[in-house]
Amino acid sequence: MSENNHISINKEVLVKVEGLSKKFCKDLKTSLWYGVKDLVSGVFGSSEERELRPKEFWAVKDINFELRRGECLGLIGHNGAGKSTLLKILNGLINPDAGKVTIKGRVGALIELGAGFNPILSGRENIYNNGAILGFTRKEIDAKLNEIIEFAELEEFIDMPIQHYSSGMKVRLGFAVAAQMEPDVLIIDEVLAVGDLGFILKCFKTIDTILPHTAVIFVSHSMPMVSRICSQIILMEQGCSQFNGDDVGKAIDLYYKRFTNNESNIVFDDGSLILDKVDIINVKNDNSLIQVNWGDDLCIDLLFTNNTLTELPAFSLTIFDKEQRPVALLTPNTLESEIQFNENNIQFRVIHKKLQLSKGVYSINVSVNNMKSKEPYLRINSILDFQIINDLETWPPFLLEANYSKK
Amino acid sequence: MALKTRVYQKERTIKFGKLLIESLSDMFKSRFLARQLAERDIKAMYRQSYLGIIWAFVTPLATAAVWVFLNNSGTVRLSDTGIPYPVYAFSGTLIWSIIVASINSPMQSTQAAKGILTKINFPKEALLLSGVYKLLFDSSIKILLLILFVFIYGVGFHWSLFLFPIAIIGAILFGTTLGLFLTPIGLLYKDIGKIITFGMQFLMYVTPVVYAIPKTGIMKTIMEWNPITPIILTARDLVVGFSPIYVVDFLIVLMICIPLLFLGLIIYRISIPIIVERLSA
Q1: Measured CA angle at A70 (ends A67, A71), to 5 deg
Q2: In chain A, what residues touch B184 (CB-CB under 8 Å)?
Q3: 3-class SS at A120?
Q4: Is A35 on the interface with B (CB under 8 A)?
Q5: What number of other Cβ atoms are within 10 A of residue A403's Cβ?
């Protein structure tokens, strides 16, 4: 019985957003004047619908979602898509122009760490300043003070004015205070980007422990992070929701597609050879983005014009993921490789059998070097973008086939 | 445990009573935050300064000194004030400075918190309260200095001195109320701040700050209608031990201020989200 109760509490809807819209004004003077008008209508009350006035636009338009305890909503979209505005409305900082937000429980926001810090005062004093703004009482802070200092790893510097802290140290202190919140709804904007690796890991460990009993709204541009913690996604564009659902992988693919540029760029070129043509063969081509099924062979045809080379150079193809991290290198050719080489052109096919990259969008960089001296001839970034299709959503870059059997 | 539910939507009807209760309860609940903010600002100010508290009264002291000089040198001829002129002038400029500071306080406190207003949801009334705390701190030091003055110039001790802080609280109440009404619009347009600074300079000369109300003439009429007059005069009379003749006007001003203060709080509460939207960084 008690367990049933527990489950029903876990499933309650903590955040409910219906038809939420917010408009902004593009021009400062007009914006201020509208502000005055809104003040007047705010004080006297008005029930009329809000229409767009001249020079206004919808920064957030008709957003709907529900979030339960234990769920995490990822808000993704390019800069200026309306994510932060939406967060501000959810946090109660600004009022919507249409629609309704219902939030239950204590709301914690990791939007800015270290709010209320004064640079002249010591770390210890600023813990109280920041804590007070986050809604702690003096007693609560007194009780948690040591824990905060320890978490921030600042025992040695806690009585130093924080103007002498590094930015990472300030963020650590800010997060340490914020981590003491026990919210029902947690709003996270990208605040954890600063700080060293150890601390970032610590932050995520903390968030992981908070996650199961909190409804989290997470704004990030880091898709691996989003796919790691989010259970549903809203992809925003120009204030509207382009995708809203729990198919995290599909949302991330859509997000990446908006950034696909088929323009390659030449990083280094000494004129020895020119890339004429590059193709992945035996694949379907959807919306100009090449799609390869997971586990299929990757066959790339390359054609170069040879200007000055007299002997076979070494070609290396590197695969990058969309975060611009190199994930794999195809083994370079040797002098014995069957490459069609003459004084006019160089032509070959590279085959990698059973490609096991995980689902996502990748691009290929090519670099051509002298076989012996490694002296570079040509380097081109993103000669080709392709997408791996698979049902399984994973965030490590490789999904390696495995068999399970008895020992 | 029942969870507190918040609803954010476009206001359709405004319930003044409910807003006022929310505002006052938020102010009460945010005592610690307000004190913390006030403490932070005061500490930070004095830690980075050697002259520290002197800056709080250097302006009224200088203004008073100018007028004492003008009077003593015979440049201007002022009617007799019944007490040593330096005490008259300094008490006037000092109380005046407290009123000016109170008018500016709500706007300054809110403006200074712009950075966190656009990022974190906390009871905004704490900003007003922290402003009042800072005013009380500054004023108490000014009062001590004034009392010192009173004794140096041989005006002597009067029991009415104990009522003086009440007059000062009246002055702060008046200033804060006025300031609160100017805050929403002042946060949107910088002009308001300038107009306050500019206007208060002129207003000082139609208030019995450095000279008494004339017996006749247009100035007498203006000064008697000026709501700041009874505050300054009552406060001064209490310090020097005169029977305060304007005490009734003083009480009337305060009685009018209290409902207006409540109205100001409601308007402040309504206007903050609108302002945050326009300030958003």
Answers
A1: 40
A2: 39
A3: coil
A4: yes
A5: 4
Do B121 and A93 count as a contact with CB atoms less than 8 A apart? yes
Cα–Cα distance between B64 and B68 in angstroms, integer? 6
Q: How far lies A67's CA from each of A137, A187, A227, B7, B82, in Å?
A: 29, 12, 17, 15, 73
Chain B interface includes A394 (CB < 8 A): no
The Cα A304–Cα A348 span in angstroms is 9
pLDDT computed for residue A2 by the predictor: 40
Task: List the single residue in B48, B117, B188 with the smallest CB-CB distance to A35.
Answer: B188
Q: Which residues of B touch A88 (CB under 8 A)?
A: 118, 276, 280
Question: Nearest to residue B94, comparing CAs of B144, B156, B162, B155?
Answer: B144
Question: How far apart, in Å, do the first and last CA atoms of chain B sit?
Answer: 37
Q: How many CB atoms lie within 10 A of CB B4?
A: 11
Q: For residue range A301-311, what is the model confidence (pLDDT) as tens digits?
A: 999 999 888 88
Amino acid at B130: S
Query: Cβ–Cβ of A47/B13 closer than 8 Å?
Result: yes
- Domain boundary assignment for chain B: 30-280
> What pLDDT sits at residue A63?
92
Dump pLDDT digits (tens) for B134-164: 999 999 988 988 988 888 888 878 888 889 9
Is A176 within 8 Å of chain B by CB?
A: no
ipTM reported for the complex, 2 dp: 0.85
- Tell me what pLDDT residue B227 has: 93
Q: How many CB pairs (< 8 A) connect A and B?
A: 147
| Residues of chain B with confidence (pLDDT) below 70 | 1-2, 11-13, 280-281
Q: Are strands A185-188 and A215-219 parallel, antiparallel or unpaired?
A: parallel
Nearest CA in chain A to B6: A103
Give, for A237, the enclosing helix (H) or strand (E).
strand A232-237
**Mutation test of the interface with chain A: which of B7, B32, B265, choosing the one with the most A Cβ atoms within 10 A?**
B32
- Give residue B208's identity as a one-letter amino acid code: P
Contact of A96 with chain B, judged by CB distance below 8 Å, is answered with yes
**Calpha distance A399→A401 (Å, rounded):** 6
A39 Rama sector, left if φ>0, alpha if ψ -120 to 50, beta otherwise: alpha
